[in-house]
Design brief:
- This protein is mainly alpha-helical.
- Among the domains are: about 1-30; about 950-1048, no CATH class.
- It has 15 helices and two strands.
- It has helices at about 1-20, 60-235, 240-310, 320-345, 350-360, 365-450, 455-560, 565-615, 620-695, 700-815, 825-905, 920-975, 975-990, 995-1000, 1030-1045; strands at about 25, 30.
- A two-stranded antiparallel sheet has the order 1-2.
- Helix 2 (about 60-235) runs antiparallel to helix 8 (about 565-615) and helix 4 (about 320-345) runs antiparallel to helix 6.
- The chain is rod-shaped and about 230 Å long.
- The two termini are about 70 Å apart.
- InterPro entries: GRIP_dom.
- One of its GO terms (biological process) is endoplasmic reticulum to Golgi vesicle-mediated transport.
- Keywords: Coiled coil, Golgi apparatus, Receptor.
- GO terms for molecular function: small GTPase binding.
Length: about 1050
């Protein structure tokens, strides 16, 4: 019984030690590694045989010894019988255990097959990911090439449209200048003719009246003289003769006084007539100025619209033009200074006259035209300053776009680096998995070689290790799936970020274009305001000079009366030429409209072809629709401008025809009036002759009749003047009404612009709110995913605990049947051979995986080389584009020279700009309101742009802070130097360190024996003295680190 109790205690100690052991060492019969610390006492397993205790008692007698030996013999016999029974029972249990062992071997083989299938699936998934990545990169590259080609094509089309539009604008400007020249010349000639005819008619009538009066007085004097002579001859007395002579002298003196009074009245009437003509001229001039102000305002609006439509591609066109204008401006200033100095001394230099004639084809006497030329040059200088401001703004915008492009490229590089790091992690996980399989095989082989009669313990240990390997395999599979999910999420986030960046850039470009257009309009309005002020001053000065010149030209008009008929014929000829030119212009504009319609049809066909070719890409379709709508809008604006120009040309033709009819009617009326005046003069001459015949007796009613005649003529002139003044007032009233309508229209346009800007601002605010909502929704979804993964990890840990409990129960059952497995040693040796064969096959697979890894590295290097080659090709293409741009710049400079010549020819058409009057105050009020509204819009735009920059900076800072935080946490938590080294490499790639900075940090040291920082996640014990608890803590710590990195 004591022996049985001792054996039972021995088996209990063996089972307890087997429960706490990592594997069983049959040589020392001790537990090599303890798996947990459940027991506090440090029990060591007992040996296989128990020592007998010998009591230290006094020696007994032989009978007692024999009796004792008999009892022992009986006990041994009974024990042998019991042992035989137990052996029979154990044989039965051995059969059961052998069957269970076979089942376990089959399960092990099934697990090996499943493991191989999982590895193959991992390899296939990795290849599929690589293929997808390559396909995505190729697709992105192809899409970028297609977009670049489309962009180049759109730029070419736009340049062609711009050239055609500039040509049409230039021709339109030429036609406008020619028409303005002809209208101004016609009006000037008509006014001069009318004034000359009126003045000459008045002077002719006064001279005729004076001539007739002098003739009558002379005839009367002759008659009286003859009568006096006869009287002197007839009468003998001297006294009577003296009396008669005294009376005749008195009469002569009276007649002389009367004649002098008449002369003074005639001179007064002539002065009054001159004043009236001057007032009429001024009133007509004011009416013309008001009409020209209305036309200039219309032209100003059209010019503002045209300038808002034009693009900013003309950065370097006006360099030579500005230089030439500066030179001309300098020469003009010098010439003006010299002219002023010479006018002070009334001395002129013939060389200076020749220089002015060569420069402007003008005489120095034509001061008004010189001032107008100077004014045009000043306007050109202001335009040059505005263009320089535009160039500075465009350069700033180009620098900003370059910075944005570099930032996007940096984001792309970081994403590529993350992708490469994920691929490296996958490859290292595959290597670690293979390494773990090899270690399992080695452990199996090593433990199978050391198994003796207590081989059941080693089987338990192997089963535990197999279960751990399966756990590790499952964890690796889960990590691989998580890495794939994170990679897909990172790619999706990258695409979303790129789309958001594109949308923000497009919105920002639209706002910048709108603000730039407003700035251009404001600068143009300011320049026009300054030019209007200068022109007003020049107009006032020229008006004062002209009033002085008119007094001097009154005497020269008398000599030009004979040439009025010739000038009239020339005017008729010019009108016919103008009508012919207007009809020709109409035909040319119609032909151009037809050509533009044909081009529009061709462009629509091209757009349809482009839409058919890009059906697969919805984004490109939207871009084509936008381009088409933009081109359609430009075409509609061009058509509207063409229609406006046609209407203007028709209006000018109608006005010229009306002016021609008015001139013909005026000439006919003047001719009729001259005929009537001639007839009236003849009638008055006859009446005067009749009165002179009756002049022998004094007539008391002659003076009153003459005064009545003069009053009648004066009243008729006043009535004519009042009629003309009423006509002028009606025209002024009509112009005022048109100006009021134009002002209301401008106010309505400004209100519409304000509403459109408010709508744009609301749309941008809504877009920003949508972006913020999307960002918060993405963060919430990521947090939900993180919670779900945590729940899954908790459930997996519970399953692991359940499986460990099941394994411990199975190991207990196997320990109870340990002694029955001795006979199966040979079978285990055969299994060892099979496992060796599997180990060799696993080595072959490892070599294949290494070969595939080298191939992958070669493919990555080839991809990098291809990318560098593409970058070089892109740089070569950019250089070629720069060369083409330079050649185009040379062509544009030649075009600028031609435009300079055309500008010199077109400077004569700016004479109408000197006729501006009281409408300048209205324009100043509108300009002030525009300035205030533009300042408000600029403030709103600055605030909006500041908010956009803050949101972009906050998003970029969030991403960069999260990246650096996760990398620093991984670096601190890393257990060994090799893991820290690899994390430092990742930090260097993220922070784009150069070679010197990497050397300072210590990244170029040769590492020995490190297999990657993820190896430590799946680390294994290399000897029998490690503890499983430390391994679990280690893996849990590195698992936290890897989860943080993967979540990033």
């Amino acid at each position: 019984r004591q022996n049985q109790q001792q054996q039972v205690e021995q088996t209990a100690t063996v089972t307890t030690t087997l429960e706490d052991s990592w594997f069983w060492d049959p040589e020392n019969n001790v537990s090599s590694t303890s798996s947990s610390s459940k027991k506090d006492d440090n029990e060591s397993p007992s040996s296989g045989t128990e020592l007998t205790t010998i009591p230290l008692e006094a020696p007994a007698s032989e009978s007692e010894i024999i009796e004792r030996l008999r009892r022992q013999l009986n006990e041994t016999v009974q024990q042998l019988k019991k042992q035989q029974l137990e052996n029979a029972l154990l044989n039965e249990q051995l059969g059961q255990v052998s069957s269970e062992n076979r089942e376990l071997n089959e399960n092990i083989e099934e697990l090996d097959r499943q493991h191989e299938v999982v590895l193959e699936n991992l390899v296939i998934g990795k290849r599929e990911l690589q293929e997808k990545c390559a396909a995505l990169e190729a697709q992105a590259k192809q899409r970028a090439d297609e977009l670049e080609a489309q962009l180049a094509e759109m730029k070419g089309r736009f340049e062609r449209l711009e050239q055609s539009y500039t040509q049409s604008c230039q021709e339109n400007v030429k036609l406008q200048t020619e028409t303005e020249k002809l209208t101004t010349e016609l009006e000037r000639i008509v006014c001069e003719n009318v004034e000359a005819v009126a003045a000459l008619d008045g002077q002719l009538s006064t001279m005729r009246r004076e001539q007739t009066e002098l003739n009558e007085s002379y005839s009367t004097l002759l008659k009286e003289n003859e009568e006096l002579r006869l009287k002197v001859v007839e009468e003998p007395f001297e006294t009577v003769a003296k009396v008669a002579e005294d009376e005749e002298v008195i009469l002569l003196r009276a007649t002389i006084d009367d004649l002098t009074q008449r002369l003074e009245d005639a001179s007064n009437e002539r002065d009054n007539l001159q004043k009236l003509t001057a007032e009429l001229d001024r009133s007509d001039h004011i009416g013309r100025l008001e009409r020209e102000i209305g036309e200039l305002q219309n032209e100003l609006r059209s010019v503002i619209i045209d300038n808002s439509v034009q693009l900013e591609a003309k950065e370097k066109e006006y360099d030579e033009k500005v230089a030439v204008m500066r030179q001309e401006n300098q020469t003009l200033r010098e010439s003006i200074i010299t002219i002023e100095n010479r006018e002070a001394g009334d001395e002129r230099d013939p060389r200076l006259d020749e220089l002015v004639r060569k420069l402007f084809d003008l005489e120095l006497t034509q001061v008004d035209e010189l001032e107008e030329r100077l004014q045009t040059l000043k306007d050109a200088d202001t335009k040059r300053l505005a263009l320089e401001k535009k160039l500075i703004d465009s350069s700033k915008e180009i620098n900003f776009l370059k910075a944005e492009n570099s930032r996007i490229q940096h984001d792309k590089d970081t994403l590529n680096a993350d992708l490469m790091q994920y691929e490296k992690e996958c490859s290292s996980l595959m290597k670690n998995n293979d390494h773990l399989i090899a270690e399992i095989e080695n452990l199996k082989c090593n433990k199978l070689e050391t198994i003796n009669e207590n081989a059941e313990d080693s089987i338990v240990v192997l089963e535990k290790q197999l279960e751990d390997s399966h756990k590790i395999n499952r964890s690796l599979e889960e990590e691989y799936r998580e890495i794939n999910c994170k990679l897909e999420e990172a790619l999706e986030e990258k695409e979303e970020l790129l789309t958001k960046v594109a949308l923000l850039e497009s919105n920002q470009n639209e706002q910048k274009l709108h603000s730039r257009e407003l700035e251009q309009a404001l600068s143009v309005a300011r320049a026009e305001k300054d030019s209007f002020e200068r022109q007003l001053e020049n107009a006032r000065l020229s008006e004062s000079h002209r009033t002085e010149e008119l007094n001097a030209e009154l005497e020269s008009v008398r000599a030009q009366l004979t040439t009025i008929n010739e000038d009239h014929a020339a005017l008729v000829h010019k009108l016919q030429q103008l009508q012919q030119s207007s009809t020709d212009n109409l035909h040319t504009w119609e032909s151009r409209l037809e050509a533009m319609q044909g081009e529009l049809k061709a462009k629509e066909i091209e757009l349809e072809q482009a839409r058919v070719s890009t059906v697969s890409s919805q984004h490109s379709d939207t871009e084509l629709e936008e381009v088409r709508s933009r081109l359609q809008s430009e075409l509609t604006t061009a058509q509207e401008q063409y229609q406006m120009e046609l209407e203007k040309q028709k209006q000018t033709i109608d006005s010229l025809a009306q002016q021609k009819a008015d001139l013909v009617q005026l000439v006919t009326t003047k001719h009729n009036e001259s005929v009537q005046y001639h007839a009236e003069i003849q009638r008055l001459n006859q009446l005067l002759n009749e009165h002179n015949e009756q002049a022998s007796r004094p007539c008391s009613e002659c003076v009153s009749l003459r005064e009545k005649v003069q009053d009648y003529e004066r009243l008729s002139d006043q009535i004519q003047f009042l009629r003309e003044k009423s006509d002028i007032l009606t025209t002024n009233l009509m112009t005022e009404q048109t100006n009021q309508r134009v002002a209301l229209q401008e106010k309505q346009e400004l209100l519409e612009q304000k509403n459109s800007l408010q709508r744009d601002l609301d749309r941008l605010r809504q877009h920003l709110m949508e972006i913020e909502d999307a960002h918060t929704q993405e963060t919430v979804e990521l947090q939900q995913r993180y919670d779900e993964t945590r729940c899954k990890l908790a459930s997996l840990e519970e399953e692991v605990k359940k499986s460990t409990n099941a394994l411990t129960s199975a190991s207990i059952r196997a320990n109870q049947q340990a002694e029955t497995l001795q006979t199966q040693y040979q079978l285990l040796l055969q299994q060892r051979d099979e496992l060796n064969a599997k180990l060799s096959s696993a080595d072959d697979r490892d070599q294949k995986n290494q070969a595939s890894l080298t191939n992958l590295q070669c493919a990555l290097e080839q991809f990098q080389m291809n990318r560098e080659r593409d970058i070089e090709l892109a740089t070569v293409n950019i250089r070629k584009d720069l060369e083409r741009a330079r050649s185009r710049e040379e062509q544009l400079r030649g075009d600028v020279k031609l435009l300079q010549q055309q500008l010199n020819d077109a400077k004569n058409g700016l004479l109408a700009a000197a006729r501006i009057s009281d409408q300048l105050e209205i324009s100043q009020v509108t300009v002030a309101s525009l300035k205030t509204e533009l300042a408000k819009r600029d403030e709103k735009y600055a605030a909006l742009e500041h908010r956009l920059q803050e949101t972009e900076a906050s998003q970029a800072d969030k991403v960069e802070k999260m990246l650096v935080k996760n990398l620093v946490i991984g670096y601190v938590v890393a257990p060994n130097a090799s893991d820290k080294q690899q994390i430092m490499k990742l930090i260097s790639t993220v922070l784009t360190m150069d070679q010197g900075e990497c050397i300072k940090v210590g990244l170029n040291r040769n590492q020995g024996g490190g297999s990657g920082w993820l190896n430590s996640i799946l680390g294994h014990s290399s000897g029998p003295d490690g503890s499983s608890g430390a391994c679990i803590v280690h893996t849990s710590q590195m698992g936290v680190c890897s989860i943080d990195l993967i979540m990033f």
